Amino acid sequence: MDTILYITDLHVGAHVAELAGVFDRASAFRWRVIEIEVARTTRPLRELIKQWNPAGCILEGSHVVTNIRKTFGSIPVVYLDPAPKTVRTAKHTVANDPERIARWAKEELAKANPASYAFIGWCTPTVWSTERARVFSSCVRDELKEACHVFKTPWEIGDSFGAQQAMATFLARLPRPIGIFAVNDYAAVQATEACRQLGWTCPDDFLLVSVDNEEMHCENAVPTITSIEQDFRGAGRLAADLLARLIADPKLPEEHLKFGPVRLERRQSSRSFKLKDPRITRAVERIRRDATTGISASDILAEIPLSRRLAEKRFLAATGKTILQEIQHVRLEKVFELLATDIPIGHIASRCGMQSDSFLKRFFKTRTGMTLREWRKRHAT
User: Fold this and answer.
1) pTM for the model
2) Most buried of the four, 134, 179, 232, 285, by CB within 10 Å?
3) What is the SS3 string spanning the chain?
4) Comparing C-alpha atoms, which of 94, 146, 97 is closest to residue 118?
5) pLDDT tens by residue, 46-101
6) Cβ 153 vs Cβ 170: under 8 Å
7) For the segment 240-294, what is each residue's pLDDT rounded down to a tens digit?
8) CA distances from 160 to 123, 167, 191, 225, 276 (A)
9) How far apart are CA 348 and CA 369, in angstroms?
């Protein structure tokens, strides 16, 4: 059994999902995977590599290593989300796809036809932030014939209020409503707070889309934040598969692979209703959160302080769907999400709020024209 080192700065955030993806492949390749968190060890990395004598390494981020050649020598290395200095010379990489991420954000914001567009990047220059800004600006300019205003003022993670004030000053100069694309969920929270400082509301004054779909940030913001979820676990699988090929053939030609977004979780920050009614907005949010728990249209109607007939009428006027149709839509989205995983099909109904397996099968076939297995096979990656 070969030893593989997964080297990262810290076991947090996306790194956890990426490592899980590597473990998904470990048994097939007969690997023992050892994680090294550079921030939590005082021993030199070269010493640890010598100790473990790995058959290969996956280096996440790669800013944790200053001298790549001296550190790894001839050991096969795959770079996962490599740092800017490394990406220019690395021969085997797996990185996120800024083209698809930025395009998804543009398409979501463009539905509301905002008066202007803005990009809020990361607090310090990074390749992923710079690339998302570049692609988003190009999409807005070339496809929508609009200018994209990029927030360039440096800000600090530890100074949230200062960051929010700087963003508020930047946003206040732009025509409203503004379609805002935030580089990630943390930056998006600062942007929503900046809008709150200005006394703005969504969607009258701004709409916002973010990246990563970290529930802690997205669900607790006001408004809740629409976010694009990336396939970090799939990135780990890609990196493991690439490393296996590189170990088998040290002369493997250069490969630069991309992992993309897997879904957009639509929340309040990008929803523009035909009829502005806070009671309907709250109902839609409740459905989004709880449709998969088995709630019914009657449960939602009981929370809208209107007669049943008037509530149904206002919901349809605002969303273009009945309450039941909205519940079914959210459940179907969850079905698609689970079909993209390796969860057994027999376990899906209970996780989507469906009455039974047989009901789910009939419902899915009616909506898609395919069985669950046919859909999974057709869309398997």
Assistant:
1) 0.82
2) 179
3) CEEEEEEECCCCCHHHHHHHHHHHHHHHHCEEEEEEEHHHCCCCHHHHHHHHCCCEEEEECCCCCCCHHHHHCCCCEEEECCCHHHHCCCCEEEEECHHHHHHHHHHHHHCCCCCEEEEECCCCCCHHHHHHHHHHHHHHHHHHCCCEEEECCCCCCCCHHHHHHHHHHHHHCCCCCEEEEECCHHHHHHHHHHHHHCCCCCCCCEEEEEECCCHHHHCCCCCCCEEEEECHHHHHHHHHHHHHHHHHCCCCCCEEEEECEEEEECCHHHCCCCCCCHHHHHHHHHHHHHHHHCCCHHHHHCCCCCCHHHHHHHHHHHHCCCHHHHHHHHHHHHHHHHHCCCCCHHHHHHHCCCCCHHHHHHHHHHHHCCCHHHHHHHCCC
4) 146
5) 889 999 999 999 999 766 565 667 788 889 999 998 876 666 678 899 999 999 99
6) yes
7) 999 999 999 999 999 999 998 999 999 999 988 777 788 998 899 899 889 999 8
8) 11, 11, 10, 18, 31
9) 18
The distance from CA 112 to its chain's CA centroid, rounded to whole angstroms, is: 21
Distance CA 335, CA 331 (A): 6
Q: Do 82 and 243 meet the contact criterion of CB atoms below 8 Å apart? A: no
Helices and strands of the chain, counted as H and E runs: 17, 12
Q: What is the pLDDT of residues 16-48, one digit of tens each?
A: 999 999 999 999 999 999 999 988 888 888 889
The Cα 68–Cα 134 span in angstroms is 28
Residues 97, 158 contacting (CB under 8 angstroms): no
Could you tell me the two tokens for 231? Answer: 């396939």
Distance, CA of 148 to CA of 138 (rounded, Å): 8
Distance CA(325)–CA(318), nearest Å, equals 13
- Closest to 113 in 3D by CA, of 135, 134, 144: 144
Tokens, residue 8: 């990262």
Per residue in 181-198, pLDDT tens? 999 999 999 999 999 999
